[in-house]
Design goal:
alpha/beta, 4-stranded parallel beta sheet, two-stranded antiparallel sheet, 24% helix
């Protein structure tokens, strides 16, 4: 009878001749080792240090690579000196299991214990394990940066908060000395097109631009590896100061025409929900913790890590995959009152474009001082904010 929009279909079958998965882990390890450690066969280049960067699925690949001990080569030598796992949340790939599906997006099921680097007890399975603190990985740890957007906390079950909390979600962890974690506040998985547009979600996609922060962090990783210069301090929400809360306690305002995020389900480990923790919100619905780029620090809109599917594609009570929302503030007090929008209007926040731009420049300068933005990128970031004013 055909497929119905908005429904998820699972197809089960008995496979034959399933291939061995995971050889890509071996290939990456061996090629990198060959570049770093000359042998009788020689190498293509004289490489002193190696840094790996992976985004989304390849970020989960790198977390798998580390957990399974592939950062040691066959002669027990360190492979990568630095690893940047971007927008991977607490997830890894489906590998080394019967019927593994390493290329699956795994909505709500990509999170797999162990989530954090330290060896901790999982309340669901009872196992004690750690991403880096296990017999395969412990002796060959690189310097690590985890960067996650709001989507990895809110949408798709990637449960990014479990990277820096205990598995029961009740206690903050102290990150190991070789690990940093950065929350890219208010951003979606990958920035949406600018100007914002409606695609598969009910709201325009979130265009919040975080690549400038990643540029600064990449250079910080380079200095950390080559010169042992400490990178910028970790920036992420914490239970201890109230910036990390259960999703049900997030104070999202009642914006007309925008459904509440409290309907979003938690991620799962198998069929069991895992703790669902997110950054607490301010009165606009914007997240309070993390690296707040000028577009968010001096906002003209609410930026979220979730977006519900449009009725045109069905399943309007479900999330648009890996998408966030851009919900612009009312332009005037009159427009705000007419819509009964609880968020102050743009004219109430900023007496003029010039006043808005001064705040943007101040926010950019603060990021430069903290090491989260390069001085040469300030002009571009400020110009982008100026474009937002005219939307």
């Amino acid at each position: 009878g055909g497929f119905e929009p908005g429904r998820t279909y699972n197809v089960s079958f008995r496979a034959t001749g399933a291939p061995v998965t995971g050889l890509g882990l071996v290939a990456l390890r061996d090629v990198t080792s060959w570049l770093k450690y000359p042998s009788a066969t020689g190498t293509a280049a004289a490489v002193r240090h190696a840094i790996a960067f992976g985004s989304s699925q390849s970020g989960r690949f790198l977390r798998t690579f580390l957990y399974d001990g592939f950062n040691a080569d066959e002669r027990d030598r360190l492979v990568f000196d630095g690893v940047m796992a971007h927008i991977a949340g607490a997830g890894r790939l489906s590998l080394n299991t019967r019927g593994a599906t390493p290329n699956a997006l795994s909505m709500f099921e990509s999170t797999t214990f162990p989530y954090a680097d330290q060896a901790l007890r999982d309340p669901i399975s009872g196992r004690v394990d750690g991403l880096l603190d296990n017999d395969r990985a412990r002796r060959h740890q690189p310097k690590v940066m985890y960067t996650n957007s709001a989507v990895e906390y809110w949408g798709g079950g990637r449960a990014a908060a479990l990277v820096h909390t205990t598995p029961d979600g009740k206690t903050d962890l102290t990150l190991p000395a070789n690990v940093r974690a950065y929350f890219l506040t208010g951003a979606q998985h990958s920035p949406g097109r600018f100007p914002p547009r409606v695609t598969q979600g009910q709201q325009p996609e979130n265009p919040l631009e975080y690549w400038w922060t990643l540029r600064a962090l990449l250079l910080a990783m380079d200095r950390w590896v080559r010169e042992d210069v400490a990178p910028p301090a970790s920036q992420y929400p914490r239970l201890a100061d109230g910036t990390l809360v259960p999703a049900a306690s997030a104070a999202f305002p009642k914006i007309p025409g925008v459904p509440s995020p409290h309907a979003i389900p938690a991620g799962r480990q198998g069929h069991v929900p895992v703790p669902f923790l997110v950054s607490q919100l301010d009165g606009d619905g914007n997240e309070r913790a993390g690296v707040r780029v000028p577009e968010l620090a001096v906002p003209l809109a609410t930026y979220t890590g979730w977006n519900f599917r449009t009725a045109a594609i069905g399943g309007s009570d479900q999330l648009a995959n890996l998408a966030g929302s851009f919900i612009r503030f009312p332009a005037t007090r009159a427009e705000r009152d007419a819509a009964r929008d609880p968020r102050p209007s743009i004219e109430e926040r900023y007496p003029s474009r010039e006043a808005y731009m001064r705040k943007v420049e101040q926010a950019a300068d603060g990021l430069v001082r903290g090491g989260y933005l390069l001085p040469e990128d300030v002009a571009t970031v400020v110009a982008r904010a100026a474009q937002q004013w005219g939307l």
